[in-house]
Amino acid sequence: MKTAIDILQEKWGHNSFRPLQKKIIDTVLEKKDAVVVLPTGGGKSICYQIPILLQEGICIVISPLLALMEDQIRSLNQRKIKAVALNSVMTQNELIVLFDNIQYNGIKFLYLSPEKLQSKFIQEKIKQLNTSLVAIDEAHCISEWGHDFRPSYLKLTILKELCPNANTIALTASATEKVLEDVEKQLNLYEATLYKSSFKRDRLAYQVFEVEDKLYKLKQILKKINAPSIVYTNSRNDTKKISEYLNQNGYVSTYYHGGLSTFQKKEAYDSWYREKAPIMVATNAFGMGIDKATIRVVIHLNFPNSIENYLQEAGRSGRDGKKAFSVLLKTPNDALTAYKAIENENINLNFIKKVYFQINQYFQISKGERSEKLFDFNITDFCNSYNLPIKKTSKILKILTIQGIINFDENVEKRSYLKFICTSKSALDYAYRHPSDEKLLKTILRNYGGLFENFVTINEYHLSKKTGLSKNQLSKSLKKVQKDSIVKYYPAIENSSIRFLVPREDDKTINRVSKRILKHQKNKEIQAKKLLAFVENKSICRSKQLLAYFGEKQKINCGICDICIEKKNLQNTPSKTRKHLIELLSKNQELSSREICEQTEERETIILKTIQHLLEENKIRITKENRFTLK
User: Fold this and answer.
1) CATH number, domain containing residue 372
2) Domain membership of residue 455 as a residue range
C-alpha cells in the first residue's frame, strides 16, 4: 500500500515533508478536523492533496478566487492528478456532465467558490459524491475581522450536512488570534487540531525607505539585486508605464493586472517565470499560486491595504531560504496621502442603494424578481447611461458581490469555438495550398477531435504555444481560413458579467446588509491604519512588529531590517562618511544629494543623516537649486 512519502516522490518528485506538514497529513488521514496557519510558501495545499490521494473518494476544495483554482488545477493536472472546477459560465447540462465525470472517471479534486455552493442543484449533486475530505482555503475570509471577508463563507457549515463522512481542513496564510476564533466558531471546528507555523523569516529583510524619487531608487535596487523580482503598484495603468520605463532604461520586465485577458496573463507569467523578463510589475492580482523559490526582492511602490496583504506579498521573496528582501518605498507625502485616502474610502449607503437600483433598471429586473440569467456587462456603457463615476461604481459592485447580493465578475472569458465546414480531404488540400496556414490547421486537427461533426472548444493560448504564432497572428489566420469557407470560428469575447443572487427589493435589499457593509468598511480602515503605523514606526525592529501583530513574541532583533541596520550604522559612526562627504564637496563646487549617493558606498539613509548633521554644524550649506557646497 502506498504511503504519503510514496505519493510525494511519485507525483512531486521529492520525498521530504516539513515536520509540521507531516503532522497535519497524519491528522487528516486519521479523519480528524484541522485548522492550519502556514505562511505564504509554507506548503498548505499539499496538506490536503496528499491525504486524498491515499484514500477513496474525492476532496472538495472551497476557494474564493477562480485564478487560484485554475493555478491549483493546472499544477495537479501536470502531475497526472485529475481535478476540475465549477465556474460561473457552466450551463446545467455541462454541470451534469462534470458531476458524472467526477463519479465515474477517477477525478480526485472538485474546486468551487462558496457562492456556487449556495445553488440547490449543486448541493444535490454534491450529496451524490463520495466525499472524503473538505478543504476550505483562504479560511480567514469567514471572519469579519479577516482582511478579505466574504459573507458567503458563513454558509459553509452546510458541507457538514452534504458530506457527513468527510473531515474538514481549514487553511490560511495569515490569521490573527481573533480571526482564528471566528474560523473555529463559524465552521464548527471546536474539536479541530490547530497547527500554526511561525511567521518568522530569518533571511528575509523587511525594509522601508523614504525617498524623493521612487523610480530612481527602484532602478538602483534592481541593478544591485539583478535577479527575479516583483514590483507591486496599486494602479493597473502604472504596471504598464513602469514596465515600459524599466525596459527603456536597460532592464527586462513585463506587467500583470486583473484587466488583462487570460492569454495575456499567461504570456506575462510564463515570460517572468522562465526569466525571459525577470522583473514583474504588477498589481496585487499577481500572487495567488506563484511557485517560484528564487525571487530575491519584492518591491512595493505603494502601501498595501493591510499588514496581512503586505506579509503575503513580501513573503513571496526568498522561498529557497537564501537572503532576500522586501522593500517598501515611500515619499515624505505618502503617509498623509494614505490617511486622506482612508477618510475618502468609505462609500455612502445612499449611493450604494442608487447603484443597486440602476443596475436592476439597466437589466430590466422587475421588483420582487430574481433572474437566473448570467448577463454580459460593460461597466463603461452602464456608467455612461446613468452618469456614474466608473471607479466608485466598480467598488460598489464589488461590495455588493462581497455581501452576496450580486456576482460581479470582471473579464469573464467565454470559450472560443471552431468547426470545419468542409470535408477532411478539402481541409488537407487547403493546408497544402496555403503553407502559411498549414502548421496551424494540422495542429488543430491533431489536438482536437470531432471537428467535422460539431463545434469544439479550442484554446488559443495552447495553439499559440504549439505553433509559435502570436495570438494576433493566430486569430488573423483563423479569420482568413473562415473567409475561405474552411472553418466556422467564434472567438472568445472578453467582458464582465453580472448574476443577481437575491430578488430585487431596492432599498430593503441594501438595508439588510447595511450594518455589515459599515462594519466591513470600518475594519478596512482599522487595517489600513495599522499598516501605516507599521510603516511609520522607526524604532522597533520590522520583524518584531509583524510577528507581534499575529500574536508572536520575538526577543531578539532581526538585525537585517532597515531599522536594525540604521541603529548599527549610527553606533558605528559616520565619521568616515563625514570625511568622505567633505572631500567630495572640496573637489566639486556643488553636488546634489543624488550625486553624493552615487559616489559614496554608504547606505543612502546614513548619507542623508550625515548631510543633515553637517548642515546643522554649518560645515556645508544648501543652494537655491537644492545642491550642497562647503560653507
Assistant:
1) 1.10.10.10
2) 416-492
Cα separation of 152 and 144, whole Å?
12
3-state secondary structure of 347: coil
β pairing state of 620-622 and 628-630: antiparallel
315 close to 205: Cβ distance less than 8 angstroms:
no
Do residues 195 and 34 touch, judged by C-beta distance below 8 A?
yes
Residue 560 lies in a domain: no
Nearest alpha-carbon partner for 116 in 81, 162, 82:
162
Q: Which pLDDT tens digit goes with each residue over 294-349?
A: 999 999 999 998 999 899 899 999 988 899 999 999 998 898 888 888 777 778 89
- Give the chain's largest Cα–Cα span: 90
Write down the pTM of the prediction. 0.76
Lowest mean pLDDT among 9-18, 39-48, 229-238, 531-540: 9-18
> If we measure between CA atoms, which residue out of 74, 48, 9, 20 comes closest to residue 289?
74
Q: In this structure, are strands 487-490 and 456-458 parallel, antiparallel, or unpaired?
A: unpaired
Instruction: Give the E-state strand segments of 277-380 in sequence order.
Output: 279-282, 297-300, 324-330, 374-377
CA distance 150 to 39: 21
Cell numbers given for 295? 525571487
Report how far Cα 130 is from the mean position of its chain's Cα atoms: 32
Same domain, 42 and 153: yes
Q: Is pLDDT at 411 greater than 70 in this prediction?
A: no
Of the candidates 1, 8, 107, the residue with the CA atom closest to the CA atom of residue 58: 107
- Tell me the β-bridge partners of 376: 497
In-domain check, residue 180: yes
Radius of gyration of the chain from its Cα atoms, rounded to whole angstroms:
28
Coil vs helix vs strand at 210 = strand
What SS3 state is found at 198? coil
**Helix extents (H) in 226-331:** 236-248, 262-273, 307-314
Residues 286 and 303 in one domain: yes
CA distance 607 to 283: 32
**Cell matching residue 476:** 488573423
Q: CA-to-CA distance for 472 and 581, rounded, in angstroms?
A: 56
Whether residue 406 is found in the same domain as residue 473: no
